[in-house]
Amino acid sequence: MKNSIVICTRNRLHDLHSCLLSIAAQTYSPYEIIIVDSSDQPLNQLPAFNALFMRSCFPDTYLTYEHTNICGTAHQRNQGIKRARGEVVYFIDDDAVYEPDYFERMTSIFKQHPEYAGGMGTLTDLPTYSFNKYRLLRIVFLLPRDYSKGRFTWSGMPTHPYGHATFKQVEVLGGCCAYRLSVVKNYLFDENLGVYAAMEDCDLSGRIARNHKLFFYPLAKISHRASPVNRHTLQESKAIWMRNYNYLFFKRFYPHNKLRVLGYCWSIAGLFLEALLMRNTAHLKGYYQGLRRFYGE
Predict the structure, then answer these.
(1) In what helix (H) or strand (E) does residue 67 lie, and over which residues does it extend?
(2) Tens digits of per-residue pLDDT, 238-281?
(3) End-to-end CA distance of the chain
(4) Within a domain: residue 153?
């Protein structure tokens, strides 16, 4: 099975270096690696990048590098889809490191289960599960959470299966995910989600899950190291997330069932209540700014 790896990156040479080293150490070599770079200085002008991204390091892999002046995860991933030639396309975060058997394990599922159009592995650096008042609040108010079913709540919020130990069918995939090229090229990522395309992975998986099966495989493991480079402040991150949630709710859920606006209002109230209980002003201000941005558009 031919696997294409698409890596979007911007000004993260150090993180990308660690990511590529973990790919070079895989027990199952990818068919091709496609890097779509929006760095201020193109990475292929830097000796440190060229010393690693070359055929001597990836002898069995086709290597493609593209620099774009259009920043944005969704746009860059779509460019990767257009260039991909493998049967399965993996969308890899540049600040993640993959265990040596990650692609071997994922490929085994795609081979054994042709009915699945996409899937993902699990994260190794999750916080320990704890059932406390905040966990209960997130359940009651239909808010995002890990250690869950990997489905959308009635308010359109995603829940994630990370933390579970068993293979399962899901409808929500996270950032490090994979799809059969024959399927994903007919959907693509939504470039209206902005430069920092928060929830673009949830949106794509939700659209695909309407017509195809998706899986979660906990034996394929990833360490997501959350690079500090190109990160917004916490307040700005929450504003972007809130704006995108509103956009996606009224794009994907509201038109099919207008009563779901009740769940939407309930979840928005839950987010503000949680921020108040945590006394987190960055969350409060960010959520408020996100709502203003959406309704001001």
Answers:
(1) strand 62-67
(2) 999 999 999 999 999 999 999 999 999 999 999 999 999 999 99
(3) 45
(4) no
